[in-house]
Design goal:
2 copies of one chain form a homodimer. Chain A is built from 1 helix and 15 strands; from the N terminus they run ββαβββββββββββββ. With 164 residues, chain A is mainly beta. In chain A, the strands form 4 sheets. In chain A, strands 2, 9, 10, 12 and 13 form a 5-stranded mixed β-sheet that branches. Chain A is globular. Chains A, B: This is Ureidoglycolate lyase.
Amino acid sequence: MKILLPEPLTASAFAPFGEVIAVNAAQRHFSINGGNTERYHDLAELVPGPDGKLIVSLFRGQPRALPFAIEMLERHPLGSQAFMPLGDQPYLIVVAPPGPPPGPDDLRAFLAQPGAGVNYAPGTWHHPLLALNAVSDFLVIDRSGPGNNCDETAITPPVQLALA
Amino acid sequence: MKILLPEPLTASAFAPFGEVIAVNAAQRHFSINGGNTERYHDLAELVPGPDGKLIVSLFRGQPRALPFAIEMLERHPLGSQAFMPLGDQPYLIVVAPPGPPPGPDDLRAFLAQPGAGVNYAPGTWHHPLLALNAVSDFLVIDRSGPGNNCDETAITPPVQLALA
């Protein structure tokens, strides 16, 4: 089985898929609250899509065992979906760019550290949550609204996600 | 100076001011991702307001020293503002209901634990970030758009926020 190894998560590497939500990915920050607080401003393009609205939810994911077989990806064609980790563990991301259903050679993986979230642009293919090491909570901002907003595609043959 | 002591943060106690964003405040949750993940669904009413859009930012706050004098509150009349703590420290919330500028007797305080965020409804009077113990990061979902979306009011005389 083809082995897929993660890259470090950086704003530039992740740009084809959406945005990184992290202090060190901010293009603009400024002081507020009389100097008490630094605001790292407007870090992702949140897209509610046609007749949709943005909602906030919490996802609690069980940790995955590695190596892990990537057998499918999903996409949300109508709206964005942002994930922010709330705990102290890293997690994994597997994506392919918006467009036709991807094959095994189209996948890229990223290792995200605590404090770094991602926002998937509408249509970005991605694997469901890949928590590591412990049960992990994420804040999620995504779309509620009419229409089909979830497509799945099989990855054939599967690829093997590993850390090294 | 009048002393203001925090209550525990619960969804029902906080209801006049907005919503609590926490697993144990969810009215609805269900399993997704083939059973890997539990989704605690749609935890807050996010309001972009007239001609506005929702944006996501990170706030990095310096810890406050207690007791702390509450000398002002602010409100965002046009949109909601949600705060989710990303670290492992508790924090404090001081609020007054939407309506006329509050006086010292109108204030309520809440002690929020890690894993529990809040969403201020449009117009809810609130003190700027009150981190405790350590430099603390929060994910913030609020409004970007035209018009004045921040009013401040003085609390006269100030009240003293303390833990006990």
